[in-house]
Amino acid sequence: MPRFSIIKEPLDINKIGIYCSGINLVKTMCYQKFINSGILNNISDANKRKQATAQFNYHISVDGMLYSIPYEYVKRKVDVRITDKTIEVFNNHNRITSYHRLYGRKGQYTTIVEHTQEEHHKYLEWNGDRFRKCAERIGYNTCQVVDG
Fold first, then answer.
1. How many CB atoms neighbour CB 59 within 10 A?
2. Which secondary structure element, helix H or strand E, spans residue 80, and what is its range?
3. Whose CB among 14, 70, 94, 106 lies 3.0–4.6 Å from 64's, allowing a Cys bridge?
4. Which pairs from 54-57 meet CB under 8 Å and 24+ separation?
5. Helix (H) or strand (E) segment spanning residue 110
6. pLDDT tens digit string along 17-26?
7. Helix (DSSP H) and strand (DSSP E) numbers for the chain
8. pLDDT above 70 covers what percent of the chain?
9. How far apart are alpha carbons 121 and 68 in whole angstroms?
10. How far is residue 33 from each of residues 12, 25, 26, 56, measured CA to CA in Å?
11. Which one-letter DSSP state was computed for residue 113?
12. CB atoms within 10 A of CB 60
């Protein structure tokens, strides 16, 4: 049993009373001040939770960013815990993957190759860099269109 625990509701000193062998009045007043400060509200805001459904391309969308999850979970609902720095994905209370949270331009993808089926690994080569290299071989104007 933990020695200390966080009290989730304000204590009413009038109902508790003051006991020599029980609750110390000074500690009770400190707890009351801590609870009323709103610190616990800020902690609960730091962790947001949502449900997401894995798309056919092995990704879930969180705040406009796309994160891959193992292909076994395609078309399934998963639970997502969102903090300022991380994205964690759970299925039946088991964490299946986690990421550093992406910020910036919406629509960014982050993909772990192991999340895709073996047959689909070759398609991961078809990315922006591949198209840019092909455009360079064709000419300057084509590069401009591809980068546009």
1. 19
2. strand 77-82
3. 106
4. 54/78
5. strand 109-110
6. 444 444 555 5
7. 5, 7
8. 65
9. 13
10. 12, 12, 11, 50
11. G
12. 22
Any idea where the domains of the chain sit in the sequence?
Answer: 13-44, 47-116, 118-148
Residue corresponding to tokens 């400060």 = 37
Q: Order the strands of the 59-62 sheet from edge to edge.
A: 59-62, 65-68, 109-110
Burial of 30 from C-beta contacts in 10 A (0-12 / 13-18 / 19+):
exposed
Residue type for position 120: H
Q: Is the pTM of this model over 0.70?
A: no
> Partners of 60 in the beta sheet?
67
φ/ψ (deg, to 5) at 41: -65, -40
Look at residue 37 and give its three-state secondary structure: coil
